[in-house]
């Protein structure tokens, strides 16, 4: 059984990054479909990264409020992840640490030791390692954006990016953002240098209050060693 654990991502966490738009004429911007194709190919090669996640507003079916941590595709089937999370767990607010290795998860609250999650709980939660999975994660989403448009060039927290917006089918993004009942608009900020790796993604959820799920990736390729807690 595939673990579905703790966080919902992209799937991706939203730094409070400051974005500055450029005055680059629309006709000089690269084609959105070509940018996304490059981004999908380069993202599929990512083996490790740091991620942050923020849920802005109320997203039906999504219990995670925020998360921050490291991801790696090493460490067993499905990879591994570790970090901190704020979420609703069994009806109560949980804020603490998590570790995921293979098909096993551990959580630790403000006090006490790490506790292994029961199998039934694991089956009903989310897997942050899916973010780097080429077949389920961000790379797959980038490959399946419909009608992409490059909206502008921006500096995002000191990184030069292109902003590309399009629509993604519910079935494509549901692994990263569970509970959706319709297609969604997604905005990507892609690096302007070679490979156009994604820096940030923002999923606009069609629900009351216009909530969004925002994710950022950083420290791509850094050394990440994640082992089960002792």
Automatic annotation (TrEMBL):
Its main location: other. Residues 1-21 form the signal peptide. Gene3D superfamilies: 2.50.20.20. Keywords: Cell membrane, Lipoprotein, Membrane, Signal. InterPro entries: LolA/LolB/LppX, LppX/LprAFG. PROSITE patterns: PROKAR_LIPOPROTEIN. It is found in: Cell envelope. The keyword Iron-sulfur does not apply. Belongs to the LppX/LprAFG lipoprotein family. This is LppX_LprAFG lipoprotein. It comes from Actinophytocola gossypii.
